[in-house]
Structures are given as C-alpha cells and as structure tokens.
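dumping this here before i forget
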Amino acid sequence: MLIGESPMVAGCFGKMIFPCPRSHIYSPSVGGYSRRPICNSLEIRVSKPPSKPPVAARKPHRFTHHGITLQDPYHWLKDPGYPKVEDAEILAHLNAENDYFQASMEPLNGLTKELFEEIKGRQQLDESSVPYREGSHEYQWKFAAGAQYPCWWRWSLGDAGRAVKIIDEPALAGNSEYFRLGGFSVSPGGRYLAYSVDTNGAERYVLRIKDLDDDRVLEEVIEDTLGAPVWANEETFFYPILNENWRPHQVKRHDLGTDATGDPVIYQEPDEFFVGVDKTQSSAYIVISASDHITSEVRVLSVDNPKGEPQLIAPRRTGHEYHVEHHDRDFFILSNDTHKNFRIAVAPCSEPGETNWQTIVEGDDTHYLRGITCFKQLMVIEERIAGLDQIRLRDYSDATHYVEFPEPVYHARLGTNAEYAIDALRIGYESMISPRTVFDYQLDTDELITRKVQHIPSGYDRSRYVTQRLTAPARDGQEIPVSIVHPINFKKDEDAPLYLYGYGAYGSAVPPGFSTTRLSLLERGFAFAIAHVRGGDELGYAWYEDGKLAHRENTFNDFVDVARFLIESGYTSAGRIAIGGGSAGGELMGAVVNQAPELWGAVTAHVPFVDVLNTMLDPDLPLTPNEWPEWGNPIEDPRAFETILAYSPYDRLERGAFPPMLVTAGLNDPRVTYWEPAKYVAKLRTLKTDDNVLLLKTNMGAGHGGKSGRFDALYEVAEEYAFVLDALGLT
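structure:
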C-alpha cells in the first residue's frame, strides 16, 4: 500500500509544489516581452535591506545553436561536479546570499514569529488520520504533540486498543536536516513491511524491510529507488531503480533473504521514459508502466507467476496515453486514442491487445475522464466537468450515478481505499472555505458519512469567508476560470491587497482547496485567488495542450489577463497584487514579471524553473530528455529553440524596475537545479533600476519541496507571508 492520505502541512498555496517530473515550474508573458511603461506603483513601501546584496562574478561563457549565439556570464554557478556541490566559490556565493536573506528579514523577525505562532495554532498538534483497512489490519498515522513527523500504527481488526507502532518517522529522521518517507507497503500476509526514506532531499530513496512479527529490520538494503515497492506474495516484491540522472529506468524483483545486488531486472526502459510499478486494485496483477508527458506503455504480470514475463498491453506510439485496471476476467483501459478527454474500454485478460478494446464509456468534450479504479462491486471514475471534480460510480452492468457534494465549488478525490471488496468508498473533500474532510460514501444508501473534519484548534468560522468561481476574459477570447476567497466584509477597493497564485504546466490542475496558513492573509484583509491558466487541465486535456510547447505563452498571458480582470472588477489595483508559484509555477512568476512588472506588489518564486533554455539544451541534466514533450527540444528543433528563448525568464530579463521578490532554491534539488534561481537572481541584480528588495534563500540541506518537518515548513510559509506583508506596507 502506498501512502494514501499521508500527513501534510495544512495546505499552503504560498509554497505549493506539484509532483511532476520536474515538480515543476510555471510562467507568463505579453506581446513578445515588450516591456510596458513602468508606473509609480512599483515604488512599493519596503524596508530597505540593512546591507548590500552579494554581487556574483561575471565570467565569459558563450554558446551557439541554430546560428544564434548567446552569452551566459553566470554559467559558472553550475558546479561541474553536480550532483555533488563542492566548489568553494559557488558555496561561498550561496552562503552570502543566505546571509543577506537573514539580514534583510531580521527587521521582520517579530512579524514572522507572530505569523508562525498563528499558523501553528491552527494545527492540531496530535493530528491523526482516519484509520483504513487493509487485509486483517487497520492502519493510521498519528503525530505526537511536538513532533515534526508522524508515526504509523496498525492493529488487528476490532482491536484498536492493541495498536502497534510500525514506522517511527521521528526516529528514522534522527538529526537529519531533511527527511521524507517515500512510501511503504505491507506484504499480503501482513508480516513484512517495506519502506523507503530520503534524508537529504535528493529524491534517491533507500529501501528497507521490517519483520513486523518481531519488530526487526532485515539486513537487506536497496538504494537508489523511490516510492513504495509492490508485493506479489509474502516473499517477493518489485521496485524501480533510478539511474544517474534520477530517472527510474528499471524494475527489479527482490526475494526476501537474497542479496539485493543480484536482483534480476524485470524491465529495462530503452528510451527516456520514466518507469513505475504498481498493482491493480484487485491485487491480481503487477502493473509496470513507462511514460513521458504524452506517451505511455503498460505491461502486466500475474501475482500468481511473479517470475514470469510481463505481458505488453499495447505498444507505445507518440501521443497515446493509457492506464490499465482489472476486474474478474477483463482489463479496463483508460485511453486517449479516440478523444483527448479519454474513453474507457474493456478487453479480455487473455487477449488484451488494442484490437480487442471495446468502448464502454465514450470520450467527449464535456466529460474529462481522469482515472478509473475497479473495485469488486463497481468501477469508480474520477472525472471533471466544466472544471469541477466529479466521482462517478458505474457497476459492471452499466448502471451509473454521481456522488453529490454539498457545495457548488470544491475539490474532491478518492481517499485511501486499500481493499478490493468495499461497502463504502473513502473520499477526500475540501473547498476554499471548507476544511479538509474525509467522507465514507455508503454504497447501499448513497449517503456521505463524515468521518473527520480538519480540526483548527485556534478556531475557525467558515461563515466569515466567501468563495466563488469567476471567469476572466483572456486577450485571445478564451475564458479563464478564477477561484477566489475573501473575508465576507472584504471591501473592493484600489488599496485592497490580493494574493494571486498560479501554476499552469504538465496538465496539473490547481484545486480550489482549503489552507489554514492562508487564513493569516485573509484575516489581514486579503483576497486570495487562483488563476486556472492554460497548461493545467482544469477544463480538459485541450486546456493543457493550449499551454505547452508552441502555445506556452498562453499560460503567461492568461495569468496577466486574470490580474487585469481582477483590477478592472474592483478587487484591487496595480501594485497591490502579491503573486506566487513554485517550480513550473516559478517559471510563471519570472515570465509575468518580465511581461507586466507594474502589476505586482510582491513576488515569491519557489524553486523557479527560470533557466528554461539552458536546461532544455542540456541532455545530461536530470530529467531533461523526458521534459522535451512538455517544452520542446531546442537542440534539434530551431522553432522550439526560438519559442523557448522568447519566454525563458532568465534569458528575457531586461534593464528596468522590478517589484520586491523572494526567490528560493534547494541545493539538493534534482528537479529544478539550484543554479537556476541563483543565476536568475545574480543577473537580475545587475539589471534592476529600483531599490526594491530582491532575496535568494537556498536550503543547503533540502531539495525541491523545501524543509520537510511540519513546523519547519510552516515557518518558511510565515517568512514568505512576512515578506509579502512588508512589501505591501501592511506590517
């Protein structure tokens, strides 16, 4: 069982990172990056830094592609020994930037601590999950009151009083600056637990096995994996292996009691695809998948014959994505072969090839089919209609109905459903004003039974806030959805502050979810909005396609157009908008700052993917070849080179005034390498003509997601909010 409903820091859009291969980044731009006139609103009331920022050396470096020669004087910030970063000059520069960050934030220490205590006060310190059943046991995670990480417990059915601790995350973390439990799974008979951990943020997990009968960790250790292994039986499991470029490229089989160095390779990926291993809900088949962002290929292996040859369902062809589930004698396939929004087909397990796929749910422009899970009694379809999450229940005789939710705008998803035969479906639910809720949908009565509502110890009254879905016109005629929440007494005014968040990449939608941290902004008079820009898949697969490759600038234009719509609608004014995004959303931040700097009063760009062209030109970097279907291959395609060059935030920086900016990085980040934000800030320092603060904070012991402990992560949110409040003159 992979970690489902795992403990999360109370949901914060100010520091939201998505689990995409480059856990990525986002971007914006207008009319060919011609800079608009700088207006006085850029002169934001910001505390002047107490010392001068570090100045990075400029060293000659040039390269030519497709007849175009570019200069990159900050290329030296990339350590040639990466992933090891040991160059003394580079480390000295990053540490100097961190010192400058600390010095600049020192006047805000009191505000940061005040925000942190507020945010911490909204967290249930002894938070625990709703138990879920798997086999003959129930499982639950639980925090001790002061712990950064939870412990995982289990007990025999009906015997919760005899709960046994099976994973002690605080003990595993020890004194590590960073810790992440990648996942765990328990063998079918319940005796063995396999789990993986990362202790530096580099996302190379170490897998260990524990005998739960005697609480003993076995000697077998497997390195360079990720996630949770998948058990075939009580003695055998399958797991992926990462290559030197962080790409999972193999699936291996391990038999307990054997030397892992001799584990046989069950599947070897010949291309630049990512490999994963899973199990059907029925637990009858191991599923080995290989995919990039637009193409997938699936093989299955019966758990009754774990040493057999995996069976290919359908050979890969560019642009075809499909996923496989199982029930009884059939495979059920979710495929985009006949419609962008996918269809569902069925084929016999004995002959699962494409020629035998029979459609049972057609694809159409209205229903965006996103996932299927085959339980014994019925199939559950996760879909989206008009940007709104839906959960459809369909029995195997074709009777179908939808789960009805209590609000018009919300986020809903399947929760932890570990069993094949169920009488209730676990569902996670929230909205921008409704705290995270766990429902059990009773199949016999069609009722939603509330199992848990997120508790906010310091108190929360949802009637004090209002949320709605707006629609903003884009410059090309498209209508961009906008989710917004604000206090009920929020007064539309040109002085009103507004925080605008966006992502827009990899077909990853930003859900209109709840955030306890965000309340600190709402209680200080902010409105908070999410721009559901193209590049995500809020309105279907075509919405994603319209924000990638040659259409990438739609993402940036949408974000700027949403901001202008909110200004025209009276919610705020230019210079009173704080914006934020991470990874590919950080690319979005860099691009919209280049396009319309006069609009923004503060910018937070977390691990921003801002050096897009250089990264996509380097096939030796982690993940780059797998990213070409998303961004384009500028090595081979001159038009892709020109397109990326036209919007890459680092390359498009020009001399002028910029808003206050906070940029973050992770030294061990394999998705957005540390030198991207470091180079960006170094170059920006030489071009900005204003006195607004520009800060770079590099986590020297973490990776893409920032600090890992729940309180450490909350403190970083408090730092960001203090920065925003100061930039907007609200301290």
